[in-house]
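Hi all, long-time lurker, first post. I run a small reading group and we've been trying to get comfortable going from sequence to structure in the token notation. Rather than ask abstract questions, I figured I'd post a concrete chain and ask someone more experienced to write out its structure so we can walk through it together at our next meeting. Sequence below, copied exactly:
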Amino acid sequence: MRFELTPRPTISPVMRTLAPVAAFVTAFLIAGLVIWLMGRSPIAAFQVYVSQPLSDPWALQELLVKATPLALIAIGLSYCFRANFWNIGAEGQYVMGAILGSWLALKTHGTDAGFWVMPAMLVLGIMGGALYGLIPAFLKTRFGVNEILTSLMLVYVAQLVLDYLVRGPWRDPKGFNFPQSVTFDPAATLPLLGEGSRVHYGTIFALVAVLVTAIVLGRTLFGYRLKLTGDAPRAARFAGFNAKRTTMAVFAISGGLAGLAGISEVSGQIGQLQPSISPGYGFTAITVAFLGRLNPIGILVASLVVALTFIGGESAQILLKLPLDLTQAFQGILLLCVLSADALVSHRIRFVTRGGRK
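-- Answer (accepted) --
Happy to help. Here is the structure in token form:
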């Protein structure tokens, strides 16, 4: 006996809406089982992962800080995924945006540079991510190279470039030989939203990206073009939409938003370049995009939910002695649950015997 997935004739809108919720609950149950097998209390873990961060004002600020790069990157990825292009290299585009934007911060370090430095850094960050995102797009449109492989391999190139720079030419000579750049000047630091707050203007950028994307995808010809390209490529060609231009456009947008997330994080949260400027935001944002159903508002909510796992994971490491890798494992389980829930919503399970009987 085997089972097959057959498409459902009609898909319930209610089930499609509830699928991410069911996936999240299922992932939590699986994670609770794993924690119980490790000899810890699942109830105590739930309190540390969820209850405590939501009841602590400092943790709520940290929640927004962690959700900001996730939302920006996932919003960019939604453009690619809607058009059925697989940009898996947002982590590398994030890093390249941080590198190019930081170049200006280091170039003007110690000078009397004015207010123009920060806007210019943001523009350079967007350009760095966009140009890096255009590499797999160009290889796909010109040579037919699979964008999954090229975008993923370019992540490691970007990380090695960053590691070389902070250990070599950009290393702080007064940094006791640590692999890090000098601390950025105030003119090259992204302002905070309030005195004593940890939330910077990158959060505003994320909200603007959500609103603009909601309008673009829902009310413009470009948004319809992406949907048609993803759902029916042949129909898109008959409608006169150029597949190559679409590919280049979505990868540039996706990379640009990832680059903006990178330079916002470095100039607003970290304040300098160092090898570990990301705990894997670019890869985690893939989960965020699908958990949010590729919908801008859904992605905003999903980014807050997944950011909660980062904060809870750090607390669980301290209070419950749980490994931090458990957080990454949970995020992987969550992605599998989301994909499984989508499959079950749009398909029906059919059991087939050897004779072909149901």
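A couple of things your group might point at:
The chain has 13 helices and two strands.
Residues 225 and 241 are 7 Å apart (CA to CA).
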